């Protein structure tokens, strides 16, 4: 796998004919296994002979040969994802059988090659490491903190309230997380509490 990982900016597709069989690769950015399976449901063609697939999200991955001989479809698709240095992606390669058997080696090249070409032409962006913060603040500071989030490239993932204040769950680029933690404490005059997944930060 490439040292510098990328993510797909948008869905993409690539089709080619190999010895009378039609192969169609469709790739999409995904954040969860549920999103990957939802894309499979959307992309799979009921009329096709096989809908083989693979996804990788961080260290997690899955692949499926959908009836092709074991190891000839799903794993080559996964290897194409890894070889392209792509993370958080699902690739479905659909085959319409044309009457000529390709053999195990031919299938591996067809599925892996179609997936690889699809990912080669796809628009991509560098993978940015993200941090998650839980911010506890008084009600008086809530509007100010929420207004600052866009400037910190922080996305509000959740918001809860109780009798003493509010709790925000934020996701933001990891390289700026420490600075944001400091700013939150400053803006709340020391009353705000920030917790990262890897420990307390203010």
Quick tags:
alpha+beta; single chain; Ribosomal Protein S5, domain 2; 2 domains; five-stranded antiparallel beta sheet; 5 helices; Alpha-Beta Plaits; 12 strands; 202 residues
Question: If you had to describe this structure to a student in words, what would you say it looks like?
Answer:
Strand 4 (50-57) and strand 5 form a beta hairpin. The protein has two domains: 6-126, 2-Layer Sandwich (Ribosomal Protein S5, domain 2), CATH 3.30.230; 130-200, Alpha-Beta Plaits (2-Layer Sandwich). The chain starts with 5 loop residues before the first strand and ends with a strand. With 202 residues, it is an alpha+beta fold. The protein contains five helices and twelve strands. The mean pLDDT is 92. The strands form three sheets. It has a five-stranded antiparallel beta sheet, with helices on both faces. Strands 9-10-8-11-12 form a five-stranded antiparallel beta sheet. Strands 1-7 form a two-stranded antiparallel ribbon. Helix 2 (74-83) runs parallel beside helix 3 (103-121). Helices cover 30% and strands 37% of the residues.
